[in-house]
Design goal:
This protein is about 50% helix and about 20% strand. The protein has about 375 residues and is of the alpha+beta class. The protein folds into 2 domains: about 5-45 and about 250-385, no CATH class; about 60-230, no CATH class. The relative contact order is 0.21.
Amino acid sequence: MALPLTYNFRNVLVRWRATLATILGIGLVVAVFVLVQSLAIGLEKSAGNTGDPRNLMIVRKGSTAESTSQVSLAQFQIIRYWELIAHDAAGTPLVSADVVTLISQPRRDGRGEANVSVRGLTPVGMTLRPQVKLLTGRWFIPGKRELIVSRKIARRFAGFQVGESFRTAGNTLSVVGEFDGSNSAFDSELWMDADEARSLFDRQNYSSLLVRAANPEASREIINRIESDKRLPLLAEPEVKYYGDQTATALPIKILGNFLATAMSIGAVFAAMNTMYASVGSRTREIGTLRVLGFRRRTILAGFILEGALLAAIGGILGCLLALPLHGVSTGTMSFNSFSETVFEFRITPWLAVKGITFAIVVGVIGSLMPAIRASRLPVIAALKSL
C-alpha cells in the first residue's frame, strides 16, 4: 500500500520552523556551490569567446602562455610572405606580430597591486580581432606612447581611465580609448603598438603571430609546414583552440568549489538528519497508526526519504535564487597561465542550476536516510503507547 504524498507535504507545513531551518541551511550550501562553480564557468566562457575560427595562433613550442613565448623577427619574415596567408583589399598579408608583457599597477580600490597584460599589436592585429569594439576615445597612434584599455580592466585599476596616464618601465603612457572585448580574454588586456611595446619593454622578439589563412586547406598546410620546418621551432593551432586550452585557472576554482561544497554539505546533512530525527520523535504515534492501517516498513521508509528530498529540493531552488543576482557581474582573479589579472563574469547556466538542485536532493536523501530507517523499524505497540 502506497503512503499518500499529502501526508508528507502536510507534515512539512505543520513543522514549519524546523522545515525553514533545514531549507535555509541547504539553500546557503547550494548558493555557495553554485557561485563558486559559476566562476569557473565564467572563466571557461571567457576563453571560449576568444578567437576567430579563420585565425591561427603561432607561439614557441613548449610555452604555456603568450607572455612566455618568443617568435623572432626572422621567423616572422619567413611566415609573413607565404602564399597560404590571406590578404586584405590593399594586398597586405593578414599576419599580426604581437608582443605580450606584464606590468604591475595599483588597484583602484587601493588594495595593493596586480599584474596586467599589455598587448602590442599592429593595425592588422585589430582587423583580425573583430569582436573588439572601441567604446570611447580613439585608437592609439604608434610612436606617441599611447594605448587603449579594456573597460572592465579600467574599472579595476588606477590610472586607466581615458585621459589619464601612468608610469611603467620608466615611461609615461597615456590612455586614449576604452574598448569592449565582448566577454573574451581581450577584456583583460591593454593594447598599444607592437614595435613601440618592444622598444619600451626591451623585447628583442615578438611573443606570438596571429595569422589568417587563405582557406581551410591553407590553414592545415600552414600547421603542417611549421611542424616540418626545422627553422621554425614553433607551434601553430587554431586561435579558438589555443584560447580554449587556456583554462587552467578554472581548475583550482572548481576544486575549491567542490571542497567547500563537500565541507558545507556535511553540516547540511547533519542539519537535515536532526530535523528528520525530531520529526520521527514527534510523530511516533502517527507511525504506529500507519503500521496498524497496513502500511509496510518500506513504504514508511520511502515516505520519510521523500520528505527529506522535498525539503532539500526547496532548499536547492532557494540557493539558486540567492545566487542568481550575481549572474553577469564582472569580477577578476589571477591567471595561473599568465600570472596576470583575468577579468570575467559570474555565469549561472541552467545546467549549473540543475546540478545545484540535484546536489541538494542528494544531501537531503542522505540526511533523511538514518531517521527514515529508525521510523520504519519502530515497534507498533510501543509506537501506539507513545505520548
